[in-house]
Amino acid sequence: MNLEEYCGIWVYLEVHEGRIAPVSLELLGAGRQMADKRGVPLAGLLIGEGVRDLAQTAFPYGADQVYLYDDPIFCDYRTESYMRAVIECVNKNKPEIILYGATSTGKDLASAVATDLETGLTADTTMLDVNAETGLLEASRPAFGGNIMATILCKKHRPQMATVRPKVMKALEPDTARTGEIIEETITLLEEDIRTKVLKIVRETKEKVRLDEADVIVAGGKGLGSKEGFALIHRFAEKIGATVGASRDAVEAGWIDHDHQVGQTGVTVTPKIYFAIGISGAIQHLVGMRNSGLIIAINKDPNALIFQSCHYGIVGDAFEIVPLLMEAFQKK
Ligand code: FAD
User: Fold this and answer.
1) Which of 100, 45, 56, 52 is nearest to 72 (CA)?
2) Boundaries of each Electron transfer flavoprotein alpha/beta-subunit N-terminal domain copy (predicted)?
3) ipTM for the predicted complex
4) Fewer Cβ within 10 Å of end Cβ, the chain: N or C?
5) How high is the pLDDT of residue 120?
6) For residue 277, how far is its CA from the centre of ligand 1 (angstroms)?
7) Residue 149 binned pLDDT confidence (cut-offs 50, 70, 90)
8) Contacts of 312 (CB under 8 A, 6+ apart)
9) Among 124, 256, 279, 289, which is best to mutate for testing ligand 1, by the most ligand atoms less than 8 A from CB?
10) Single pTM value for the model
11) pLDDT score for 316
12) Residue 282 · residue 245 · CB < 8 Å
């Protein structure tokens, strides 16, 4: 493989309910920095039906170009049709790096593309950098149970690919004066060539927990002692209009649903304020919340690890401290 033939950084622009997904805009921000460092263009790759207008929305967020596949065959996401478009576009235009959001669609698509192109894929990345001279992507993610950060390199194949967790990169402030080039691509794909059909889309009826969009999170851990104890977290969150988060141990104890889990095997969050209550501060929890604006920890053990990673720490029993906080908020 001649690595020299590959140039430029791409972001797969995922479409959610008629808009470019926030994670894709975040990746354009990260991609812009890498493209500037490397001196190469940043392109978005947009696939769908009736998505032409969305292509324009990528430019204010940093894209120089958008490769566009707009065709009824892409009406619903299907691995086979989307991967065919990505592969064809890659073979034709040869990018050196492609970034995808680590969403269910992004993970599915990236792994299918990587398998077909026989290239490397770093999953669930939380840090990205590029070597300005060689173009080598440095994609880092927690490894060995979250005890270390591993930087994974793909030295011999192109494109280098990574899925990146939502909310770990920052989208640029949109610059509406910024424009770019839309490159229309077409692919000959027949419905009968695709082995899957979408018969019906059944929306989840359960209200979705939007931890990754919350401004304030009150998270509880094993220190709450029981499901009844954990109810204190719900009461506090309700009082201050926060979203409830949890450690894995609280989830595994059955006190709260997995949707609320923060951390390596849960959601990555960046609220303005994060309360960690009765949470010890294990690395697997910290990787999911350490970029929060303000971290306030309440723990009865003065040596708890969480106190090394918080902005304010209160040493004390949650069942005494939290009611006092609620009372104080009541007075405000
Ligand atoms: P504990 O570690 O038991 O801590 C409870 C804390 O509560 C203690 O510090 C204690 O001093 C304090 N406490 C006790 N009583 C009170 C009280 N009355 N008032 C105040 N404080 C009190 N964990 C996650 O959270 N998210 C993940 O995504 C995740 N993924 C993982 C992935 C892997 C591969 C592995 C191996 C582990 C993962 N873990 C994850 C688990 C993680 O290692 C810890 O076990 C977990 O975070 C501990 O949860 P905790 O802090 O609630 O419980």
Assistant:
1) 52
2) 9-198
3) 0.99
4) C
5) 95
6) 10
7) confident
8) 294, 295, 296, 297
9) 279
10) 0.76
11) 97
12) no
